[in-house]
Design brief:
Keywords: Glycosidase, Hydrolase. The protein is 11% helix and 38% strand. The chain contains eight helices and 46 strands. The strands form ten sheets. An eight-stranded parallel beta barrel has the order 23-24-25-26-27-28-29-30, surrounded by four helices.
């Protein structure tokens, strides 16, 4: 057995969240409010003398690419430099400025600003002085601005962001799209990302917890301080505590640490994502010099060809999906609630693992995975030295890869959700000695930062000659290489494999490849959640060019852009669920979208064209292909109470049973049987004329912090409450109270309507509104108006 990893990991929870994270402290404060924004370049935008009184005021996170192109009512244009890859959205250059005050009492302390992500190529100035340039749009970074600020006076930070040309294979967003923080610390303090918590022992009886920290000593002070470390449970009871006297010498950095023991710990798992908290303190003369709070999850993981992946000693298969970083109609904006909702929806659809393709995520997303129990493959790059486009990261790779890889691993290595580090995806020239050496170098560098997790990569077009590239990897990600599982295992019996990407249309075969082989630990569908960019690959496929406009998102996710489950998600549920599952779909008599006559045979990201409604006026008496996805032994289909026959779910049917049914308005019903007994039913009922608007919110109570969100789904329904998926109507929204519309949209992959307007057409009888909270308590009333229908409203309560 070549590999066996077993360890406890912990998460560092930075910042403020409306979803249960620690409140701001003086040490670290949200820096998201009251920025000024100018779309386009401007001469000397960093100068304090510049008049910015007419600039637009915004609160972060912000993404200008999801907003309407100036002079239009759409974020999309056929002439966009991003073309198909970016979903015909527009980047360019933008400026951000923020005026802020540092109290005179803070003089002598260290002042830093941290950014969780800026897309991309950001230059930062403070008080007219250039502080730094940060290129990679997905990695977090922190800037020490102590020498640039004025204490007891107003300061100016300016950020120029350049997202120019085609530089990515999907939608990136533009601007400061993740959170920012202002940090004020004593010259002696815990270094950012310097604390790493592990355990050589983690069982139900006890956990041996090692908390290793780096003390930053910017003024090289000498003397003695006390390091105190406590572990606290959810009830705020201290379950372990240690302290030691630390002698400081004339060094800028000092490594310190404790070994603590937690008896009978709650082990973190996908079903019980229990989080403790580590409180790390530095004390001198009975005063707290610095303090950090770290949310932690106790668990151990192991990988081997014999036992596959094990969590807390139990083998389990990774029911995985790939996701890009955008949040649909919000673009790239990484609101905590948007990231949390995404994980909630994916977990509800059966996923237990995600591959974050192909870049480091927001801290907010990993925090959500920790809280909710979702396993993660954290990924660094989509290319190395040889890129996909002229302006992509490849031109910076040799200079910056170590800095950016360090950022990902050091920031994320304490999250219990993270189980693997991926150093790349579909790397070009991977069979050459040059790229094999890079693979070895990157793998080795990751292990200098964290030896507790395996290193992996997503690898395509695998042949025998790919062995040298795969050799440095601990676990091998196979992109669309189902046919290699058995032959490669014979050649390399210790190789651990997972499908790092797979096709939805081949879900049954890919999952059987996981179930039937111990060395294949999971399957990650492309994709779990639909996304903007790679426009139409789930329908038109490759090759693609500007002719496919107005397509703007991929149309290949198990969940669509609004977060609703598509038919392919229900087929996957029949494979993953132990409970009986059946779901009815219908092949429409006319294709859902215009077909691509030039589609290549190898481009098979499309799932069969099916819908889950029974409304086809004008086709009465004509045969319709009806399929039932089921994991049951037998299924019987009924139309308006009349049996259309019972079918056996034999292996060759791959959980898809098919009937030809003459269309008639009414009710389709599938009855499922196991061992001769009825175990479940599924129905599709024809919708009548739309009679009313139905509004439902994912949460009717939100936090008045200016950053919380409520997702409101609108449906056009008949008198019985059945949604009519043929209804496409313009909806006008209005809000009363201290809240704003953050986004409005639907899942139509060809719609180019505005995401930031107060109106939107429905598609398949529905659309989605996202409301952003204000700062005051009270009621928020959202009203929806559709011509010739009664007005509908819903009330959201907003509390401090």
């Amino acid at each position: 057995m070549r590999i066996l990893y077993s360890l406890l990991f912990f998460l560092i929870a930075f910042g403020v969240s409306s979803c249960g994270e620690k409140d701001s402290t003086l040490r670290e404060q949200s820096f998201d409010e009251a920025w000024l924004f100018h779309r386009g370049d401007i001469a000397e935008g960093e100068k304090q003398s510049l008049d910015d009184s007419q600039w637009r005021q915004i609160n972060l996170p912000h993404d200008w690419s999801i907003e309407d192109i100036p002079g239009t009512n759409s974020p999309f244009t056929a002439d966009a430099a991003t073309e198909v890859a970016g979903g015909f959205t527009v980047g360019g250059t933008g400026w951000y400025r923020k005026h802020f005050y540092i109290d005179a009492a803070e003089k002598g302390k260290c002042i830093a600003v941290s950014f969780d992500g800026i897309y991309m190529n950001a230059d930062i100035w403070v008080n007219d002085r250039h502080v730094a340039n940060h290129v990679y749009g997905y990695t977090a970074f922190e800037l020490d601005i102590t020498d640039y600020v004025r204490f007891g006076a107003e300061n100016l930070i300016a950020v120029r962001v350049k997202n120019e040309g085609m530089n990515c294979r999907w939608y990136t967003g533009s601007g400061i799209y993740r959170h920012t923080f202002l940090k004020i610390t004593n010259p002696l303090h815990f270094e950012t990302w310097g604390t790493f918590v592990t355990t050589p022992v983690a069982t139900a009886d006890k956990a041996e917890v090692h908390v290793q920290s780096v003390l930053a000593n910017t003024e090289k002070v000498t003397g003695k301080v006390i390091l105190e470390t406590r572990i606290v449970d959810k009830n705020n009871h201290t379950v372990a505590r240690k302290e030691q006297l630390v002698t400081l010498d004339n060094k800028e950095k000092t490594e310190v640490g404790h070994a603590l023991e937690v008896l009978a710990p709650q082990l973190w798992s996908i079903d019980n994502p229990y989080l403790y908290q580590v409180v790390n303190r530095l004390l001198q003369d009975d005063k707290v010099i610095d303090e950090e709070y770290i949310s932690i999850g106790i668990r151990n993981i192991a990988f081997s060809a014999e036992n596959g992946f094990q969590l807390n000693g139990k083998s389990m298969k990774l029911k995985g999906g790939c996701i890009h970083h955008d949040n649909g109609l919000l673009g790239a904006k990484a609101f905590d609630r948007a990231e949390e909702r995404k994980i909630e929806l994916l977990k509800a659809a059966g996923f237990n693992a995600l591959r974050l393709s192909h870049n480091p995520p927001s801290t907010a997303l990993l925090n959500a995975c920790d809280r909710l129990g979702m396993l993660v493959i954290d990924e660094a790059f989509d290319m190395w030295r040889y890129g996909h486009y002229q302006y992509d990261y490849a031109q910076y790779f040799d200079k910056l890869w170590k800095e950016d890889l360090h950022s990902m691993v050091a920031r994320d290595r304490n999250h219990p959700s993270v189980i693997m580090w991926s150093i790349g995806n579909e790397i070009k020239n991977k069979e050459t000695a040059e790229i094999v050496d890079i693979c070895r170098e990157l793998t080795g560098f990751v292990k200098t930062l964290d030896t507790t997790r395996p290193v992996t990569a997503g690898v395509n077009s695998i042949v025998d000659a790919t062995d040298d590239f795969l050799a440095p990897l601990d676990v091998c990600g196979y992109n669309y290489c189902l046919n290699r599982y058995e032959s490669d295992a014979k050649r390399h019996p210790d190789r651990i494999i997972y499908a790092s990407e797979s096709y939805a249309s081949q879900a049954y075969d890919y999952w059987k490849g996981v179930e039937d082989h111990s060395w294949v630990i999971g399957d990650f569908i492309w994709t779990a959640f639909d996304y903007i960019g790679e426009a139409s690959i789930g329908w038109c496929g490759y090759p693609l060019d500007k002719r496919i406009f107005p397509w703007n998102h991929a149309n290949c996710g198990d969940l669509n852009l609004s977060g609703e489950r598509r038919p392919q998600s229900y087929l996957r549920e029949t494979l993953w669920s132990d409970a009986p599952v059946s779901h009815i779909v219908v092949t429409p008599p006319v294709p859902s979208f215009p077909l691509n006559p030039d589609k290549a045979d190898w481009s098979v990201w499309n799932f069969p064209d099916v819908v889950d409604h029974w409304n086809f006026p004008g086709y009465e008496g004509k045969k319709m292909t009806v399929s039932v996805y089921s994991n049951c032994e037998q299924v019987e289909l009924f139309l308006n109470g009349e049996s259309l026959g019972k079918q056996e779910n034999t292996a060759d049917k791959k959980n898809t049973l098919v009937w030809e049914v003459p269309y008639a308005h009414g009710i389709l019903k599938a009855v499922s049987y196991n061992k001769g007994g009825e175990v479940g039913t599924a129905t599709l009922e024809s919708a009548g004329k739309v009679e009313k608007i139905r509004l439902s919110a994912d949460r009717t109570e939100i936090v008045a912090d200016g950053n919380d969100l409520s997702y409101i789904t609108l449906e056009l329904v008949d008198s019985k409450g059945i949604r009519n998926q043929l209804a496409e109507e313009l909806v006008a929204f209005s809000i009363e109270g201290d809240a704003t519309i953050e986004g409005v949209g639907n899942a139509n992959p060809m719609s180019i309507e505005s995401f930031v307007a107060n109106s939107r057409k429905t598609w398949r009888g529905s659309n989605l509104l996202v409301v952003r909270s204000g700062k005051s308590s009270g009621r928020i009333i959202v009203t929806a108006t559709v011509k010739a229908l009664p007005v509908a409203s819903i009330t959201i309560t907003q509390k401090k």
